[in-house]
Design a protein that fits this description.
Layout lengths: L44 E3 L2 E3 L15 E2 L5 H19 L10 E8 L4 E9 L7 H4 L2 H6 L2 H6 L6 H8 L2 E2 L18 H11 L3 H16 L22 H14 L10 H13 L13 H22 L2 H17 L16 H16 L6 H14 E2 L4 E2 L9 H14 L6 H13 L9 H14 L1 H17 L19 H17 L1 H4 L19
Antiparallel strand pairs: 1-2, 3-6, 4-5, 7-8
Helix pairs in contact: 5-6, 7-17, 7-18, 8-9, 8-10, 8-18, 10-11, 10-12, 11-12, 12-13, 12-14, 13-14, 14-15, 14-16, 15-17, 16-17, 16-18
Length: about 525
Amino acid sequence: MVSSSPSPPPPPRATLPPPRPAPIAKSPLSGARPDAGMGTAGGGVRWKGEVQAVGDKSEAEEPQRRFDITRAMPSWLFSLVVHLILLVLLTLLTTPAGQNLGRVLLTIGQADGKSEGELAEFSIDEVLLPSEAEWNDSELQSDVPMSTIDDLSFELSAEAIAEAIVPLEFGAGETGIAGAPMVGGRSGAMKQTLLAMFGGTPVTEGAVSLGLKWLAKNQTKDGSWSLVGPYDDGGNSENRPAATAMALLAMVGAGNTHLTGEYREVVDRGLRWLVKRQDRDGYFARDVRDHQQAYAQAQCSIVVCELYAMTKDSWLRSYAQAAIDCAENWQGEEGGWRYFPGSGGDMSVTGWYVMALQSGVAGGLEVDRTVLYRVPEFLDSVQSYDGAGYSYQPRGAASQAMTAEGLLCRQYLGWPRNHPPLVAGVTSLANNYKFNIRDPDFYYWYYATQVLHHYGGKPWTIWNAKMKVDLPAAQSRTGRDAGSWSPQNDDWRAAGGRLYSTCMAIYCLEVYYRHLPLYRTEFDGEAIPGVAE
């Protein structure tokens, strides 16, 4: 989805010097140290057959151009699509009731009259539903009845299939900045198509449904959410703007707005609570503790900008535009963002502001593109290995979470998919920092899931194969916490608590449709040198 940019020269083959000690990073909510480093013994970036270390875990820190769909489709191809759908429907209708369909495979191709053309396959893999004992639990059953899961299917309409098989030009275009329709896949036929194409399952959607139900249940009467409770494992300090923004982002990511959706009223109450806190300067978080303000402000900005992009509700435009203006005014001289307006940047805060500005671009708001053009200056200052790794601040050691966040910024700001540092960074994440439910790191999961989803291919297949099974399985299924994720053993459990971990988990499971992919790839995954199976 991005415009091509000159590739940097490959890294030298000589042994790299050890990384300098890095400053202590802050958490995305409270200012605590957010990540435990990128390197492990023997780990690193593989580049041209050579393994280069990317920092040690003990040292590191933390915390679409247009959606241009060519519609030049021959009439015979449209007819073929329609007839294929009818055949699939007839097959499903003749399947005995209650039979579990293991795999539905729809193959669409074209021939030139001499030989078969390329085939594009869209499939729904067999999924494991919760056990009978789990579904017999009365509280869980009242949340998501078994019939709801049984009936949940990813139907591909004629329109959705037509859009999917026509070449999609996702990219940043000449500006090097991604734009609308970033949020255009969250509902309807496109949502179902993206779920099928990128590996979503009824189990992942069931987990999202349970998570949203838990969030709705814990909304306060005034429309806000709390980090500290009333649920178990709350955070150790309050930040209502951040808590409200995170909960709303989960709701909005599944297609709910203040105008439509199952949780329309929940979103409307939360949004109105949020905009009442915004001052004339566009600032939502003035009453929040110092180090938490920047994160809360960015998260609130993303919410109002995404809702405006999804609805074009004129009532919301002034709030969204004021948030964009505030973000632009907060940028530091080095091109990044940190805790206070104009202060030096750090990778953790900067990533949130990049996404806030991208949400403004997606909504057609007035975004000063020179602000985004300056971000690579900051990214260059925290990169290592020509951009394959990233640290929290300049001269620090690269860590897995900051690398994932830095690579996501690079993807949105113009790096093409075949850019060598991007390939090297993605390869390292796919090889050495796979999804591991036994070592919870919701912040890393949030960014790595997005980077690998956009990149696609084998790295995404490797990551998603674990995430789509293990993350729903870790969801609480009984008691008043049913639908949430425990923050236990995560580095930021004290800062964000159960609401933070639950929202981050939901974002991961919404990734199939939450943001449209930045690159057009083969969806069955291609082999990439150096990426382990």
